[in-house]
Design brief:
The protein has 6 helices and 7 strands. It is of the alpha+beta class. It has a 3-stranded antiparallel sheet with strand order 3-5-4, covered by helices on one side.
Length: about 190
């Protein structure tokens, strides 16, 4: 089958070569982009003022400002409340914390690189035989990539959460907390000029 006789095939292949699929966190959400970047690459987070307040299981999801009677015992790097003479530690105070890399996007890409290449080859053959289009192939590939990233997020356990985080969350699930990150995973198509 000659490409000279099939301008529609040439046009479909041209669409494929001029479109990039970007799968992951929405490009327009700067907060989730930051969260994804910290998890993907790791980071050291340093206190802007004096201390970072790391919540314990007792604090749960509350902020320090939401807990009445909170105080810092002399000589201790904690914030606690007095429960009838017993201290309940609500926050651990730290100057900085190190978040280890958890490269969920890179891991997904590397683990599935051969699958994506196979999908492209098979899709191009279907386009050549008139059984598919560039749009169908791109959407199929984008959905697959998005689902694969979600699976990686769900199944990512190493490096583990810090013991304090495991205690607060009740489980070791490093990339899952509120579900906002995994729920945001989507795709977009960019043209060659973007």
């Amino acid at each position: 089958m000659s490409f000279d006789r099939k301008p529609e095939v040439r046009a479909e292949i041209e669409k494929l070569t001029h479109t990039r699929i970007v799968a992951g966190v929405p490009l327009h959400d700067s907060y989730l982009q930051m969260i994804a970047g910290v998890n993907e690459n790791g980071a050291v987070i340093t206190a802007k003022r004096q201390w970072l307040t790391i919540p314990t299981a007792a604090a749960g999801t509350r902020k320090a400002s939401e807990i009445s009677g909170l105080f810092k015992p002399k000589g201790k790097n904690i914030l606690a409340v007095d429960n009838g003479g017993e201290l309940t530690v609500m926050f651990i105070l730290k100057k900085s914390v190190k978040i280890p890399p958890r490269p969920f996007i890179w891991t997904t890409r590397e683990k599935n690189r051969a699958k994506y290449a196979r999908m492209m080859r098979e899709g191009v053959i279907e386009i050549i035989h008139g059984k598919s289009t560039a749009d169908i192939l791109q959407h199929k590939l984008a959905r697959t990539m998005t689902n694969d990233i979600r699976i990686t997020l769900r199944d990512f356990f190493d490096p583990a959460n810090a013991p304090l985080t495991v205690e607060r969350k009740g489980k070791n699930d490093p990339l899952m907390d509120t579900g906002k990150l995994i729920g945001s995973i989507t795709w977009t198509f960019l043209g060659s000029g973007e």
